[in-house]
Amino acid sequence: MAKFGLAELGLSGSDTRSNSGAAQMDVDAAPANQAETGFVAPGDHVAVQPSNGPTDAGDLLDADDVVSDLPGKGGETIACGDTGPAPRPGASEAAEPAAPAPGAEGPADAPAAPEPRSHVRDFHAQLHRALAGTGFRFDEVMGCIFNGDGAISGPIRLVNRASRINKTGQCWELEFLDLDDDLHRVTMARATGRTAQGSLDATFRDRNFNYFVAYDHLMDMLNSMKEVPRGWRVDHAGWFIDPKGPASFVRPTGAVHQPPGATPLVLYGADRSGPPPPGSLQGWQDEVATLALGNPGLVFAIAAALAGPLLRLAGIETCGFNISGGSGSGKSLFLRLALSCGSDPARLPPWSAAQTGLQHLSARAQDGLIALDGFPRDPDSRLIRALLAIADDAGFGRTVLPGDPDGATRWRRLLLSSSELPLAAALLRKRRPPPAALLSRFIELPAPWQQDGVNTAFHGAGDSLSFARRLEATMRRQHGHVLPAFLDRLVADLAAVEADLPRQIADHVDEIKQLWPGGRMGDARQTHAAAERLALVACAGELAIGWHLLPWPAGTAKAAVLRMAGLALPTGGSGGGPGSIGRLRDFVGRHEREIIDLDRATAITRRSEGDRDPPPEQIGWQDQRYLYLRPDAVRAAFTDLDALLAAWQEEDLLVPGGEKRSLQYKLPATKLAHRPRAYRIDRQKLAQSEDDETDLWLDGADDEAG
To answer: Ranges of Polar residues compositional bias (predicted)?
Structure first.
């Protein structure tokens, strides 16, 4: 098989090829005109072989097939089109094509080429400007960049040269079209050697892009491009404060929101490949946001999704809201609705993703939203450490970021989480008292369908399940638009928002605190911290309404936040619902006759009680200091017993027996010969405890009904 370069197909026989996947051409029984002229005539067959060694037989294609793709890597096929006589080597590049023979169909009779998409036209124009005067040219028909020696690569351009503020971390931002004319934008470090080459090769191969020269030659071509701005490199999403310019906001995708004239920003490691989000802002407003009206929990979810960029302006680091409830209570729907504001709601990560990747998640969500679904009832040590790290504004995990190798960055994040049990209850089940940072920065809220009649607006759906399915379907069609629009307005009006936000938060805080009398949310500091975080959500929602980004009446977001604040679980969030102590007191009072007093019973009575199973109506025993409640009787009375046990233990009402993995107490033989297990309750603390939760809940329910 004779080997030669095909300049007209983007290959030169003198090219230096690397093992990066550049293709070589072998032609079976090449006719004399091919060997002499170096181009393929219609009807010839071309076999494509990978550069790291020939195979027994390549894929054969007729040269008069329609042009479709560029030469590929690793044995991919190319189609060589009959585009008219190719110019001989040395012929003028501007030579006119041959006129059609008399009687033959002219170009006017040929099928019109499809109109390129708008992003393709724009990219081609930018690439022509970048290559002007560099010795390279771009052929739009071939979809290939050439120089005097032959083909270099597919359409690619250097968009930005960037470095960190301290001039380290030099990197490039590249933009290229794949073989399907889809646009990709990636970043690469300005490093040399096999590591850099291998990384870029893998990126190109994964995105169906080809280059046909040595890696260094490709870098030389990119480096020669003109009109390439210099910008700042950033290593995580969120706010960027230019030392000599205005503030800008970078989203995890690499999209930048900044005022005109600001220095370009490059988010290192961002991949802006893939199709744009489906639908439109108007479509999301009409089909998704309108369904949230009448549902305070869902209105809250949307407002919370927009509150992350306000954290820095408000001086708040971590803000967390955990949605707890049973299966089918709308927890995951709440989180996906929040995600639909800025991304794909189907990509809702579970809490297990935070076990080893919290540092990476935090970098993507700086000044933004982290949504984590399904904190388990019995978390392992890694999940507990991740939860506590979030509460401490820290990152935890194995992922190392280039700009934060030791994980020392303090992150600003808004976390929306879901769980069956409140987070504090889950920690208490593992005998880990919730720390003050968690209690101050995380607020426990009931799931949407467990808000005691608050969420009843199903917009024509018969029940919550039908409504949830309808909302899920609309979110798949419409998502990812309102957060970018919110950031555009926020950056444009940043000075005004920054000046007015403290006053707005203070006003909302005062109203929220009025819903929490009697230290319901802890001491004064904890109460203020919780109220601030809820107020921030109200401000974000009302800003979006004022900017006509949310199709709701003014005051809708604030009203939803106030309702959710009234439903918030008390500090620690382990109550499993309102009135946890009152529910215990009520249970004991209703079954007072079914509790045997061990101090009054004789030894024989105690022994006989221990020798037989207690009757079904008996719920336990008592002595002067403790109540001993039968586990089966208590579990039958309370479906949310695990959460209640955690709350009772937090209030020092429940006194376990000291066994490592049990909250129960085994009565001694001096009490009952059978030594049954029971939940031991401190009678004195139960009698002395003041339970405001029930009254607060009833007041909130009355407000909702009104």
So the answer is: 13-22
Q: Domain count of the chain?
A: 4
Q: Which residues have CB under 8 Å from 532's CB, separation 6+?
A: 314, 316, 505, 509
String of DSSP letters for 487-535: HHHHHHTHHHHHHHHHHHHHHHHHHHHTT-GGGTTSSHHHHHHHHHHHH
pTM of structure: 0.69
Q: CA separation (Å) from 204 to 24, 69, 201, 276, 389? A: 18, 15, 5, 20, 37
User: CA distances (Å), 20 to each of 16, 197, 204, 309, 389, in order?
Assistant: 11, 8, 10, 42, 42
Rounded to an integer, what distance in angstroms lies between the CA atom of residue 64 and that of residue 111? Answer: 16
- Whole-angstrom Cα distance, residue 173 to residue 159? 5
The answer on 589 and 550 residing in a single domain is no
**703 assigned to some structural domain:** no
Helix pair 494-513, 556-567: axis angle to 10 deg: 40
Of the CA atoms within 13 Å of residue 455, those in its CB half-sphere come to 26
Residues in CB range of 391: below 8 A, 6 or more apart: 318, 320, 435, 437, 438, 441, 442
**Region at 466 (left for phi over 0; alpha for psi -120 to 50; beta for the rest):** alpha
Q: Domain containing 42: what range?
A: 1-88
Q: Do 650 and 685 contact (CB within 8 A), yes or no?
A: no
Q: Which amino acid is at 409?
A: T
CA 554/CA 507 separation, integer angstroms: 16
Which of the four pLDDT bands, split at 50, 70 and 90, describes residue 615? low
Q: Could you tell me which of 318, 298, 306 has the C-alpha nearest to residue 542?
A: 306
Whether 291 and 260 share a structural domain:
no
- Burial tier of 137 (Cβ tally within 10 Å: 0-12, 13-18, 19+): middle
> What CA–CA distance (Å, rounded) separates 608 from 580?
34
Same domain, 517 and 607: no
Do 234 and 289 reside in the same domain of the chain?
Answer: no
User: E-strand spans in 272-426?
Assistant: 318-324, 368-375, 413-419
639, two tokens: 């479906």
User: pLDDT band at residue 89, thresholds of 50, 70 and 90?
Assistant: very low
- Indicate the SS3 state at residue 137: strand
Amino acid at 115: E
Where do we find the tokens 């190392």?
400
Residue 680: exposed, middle, or buried by beta-carbon count in 10 A (0-12, 13-18, 19+)? buried
The amino acid present at 146, given as its one-letter code, is F
Name the residue among 638, 584, 643, 571 with its Cα closest to residue 425.
643
Band of the pLDDT at 254, cuts 50, 70, 90? very high
Mean of pLDDT values over 29-45: 36
Q: Which of 267, 293, 323 marks a domain boundary? A: 267
> How big is the chain by its Cα radius of gyration, in Å?
34
Q: Are residues 17 and 139 in the same domain?
A: no
Q: Who's near 691: CB < 8 A, 6+ residues apart?
A: 579, 581, 582, 585
* Residue 434 resides in a domain: yes
Q: What tokens appear for 631 in the block?
A: 């586990």
Q: Is residue 696 part of a domain?
A: no
Task: Say if residue 136 is in the same domain as residue 256.
Answer: yes
Which of residues 237, 267, 297 is at a domain's end? Answer: 267
Amino acid occupying residue 578: P
Of 256, 253, 258, 252, the C-alpha closest to 237 is 252
* Confidence category of residue 617, pLDDT binned at 50, 70, 90: low
